[in-house]
Amino acid sequence: MFFQEAPPDTSAYMVAGYVIFFILMAVYLISLLIRSRNLRQDLTMLETMQQENRAIAESKTTPVRKKASKAAPVRKKTTNPKTATRRASKAKAAKTARPKPKKKSLRKK
Q1: CA 13 – CA 11 distance, rounded (Å)
Q2: Does an H or E element contain 103, and which?
Q3: Spatial separation of the C-alpha atoms in residues 73 and 102, rounded to whole Å
């Protein structure tokens, strides 16, 4: 009496689900292949850049012999008068400042 009707036919939904699943998996695999190809290209680019940087660094570190020349004259340091007076006043204040009290130890002897 209750179960006299046949169950609904859902095979079309099952086929549609499988089709959608396989399409999504194909898109995902294609995406992975494209990413791996791009990573390989980036890796080769970085390797060539690293080789170029090493070559540049080696060319900079190899000494180039120059003709002997006289040493450049040493310049005296010039001080700004404002900073010189600040330094002097700080030094004077440090001399006249009271000594800091020693910290008491909390450990029991």
Answers
A1: 5
A2: none
A3: 50
DSSP string, the chain: -TT-SPPP--HHHHHHHHHHHHHHHHHHHHHHHHHHHHHHHHHHHHHHHHHHHHHHHHHHHS-------PPPPPPPPP--HHHHHHHHHHHHHHHHSPPPPPPPP-S--
Number of domains in the chain: 1
Query: Per the domain annotation, does 52 fall within a domain?
Result: yes
Write phi, then psi, for 71 (nearest 5 degrees). Answer: -70, 145
- The answer to whether residue 65 is domain-embedded is no
Q: What is the pTM of this model?
A: 0.45
Residues 6+ apart with CB under 8 A from 38: none
What is the domain range of residue 24? 12-59
| pLDDT tens string 29-43 | 999 999 999 999 999
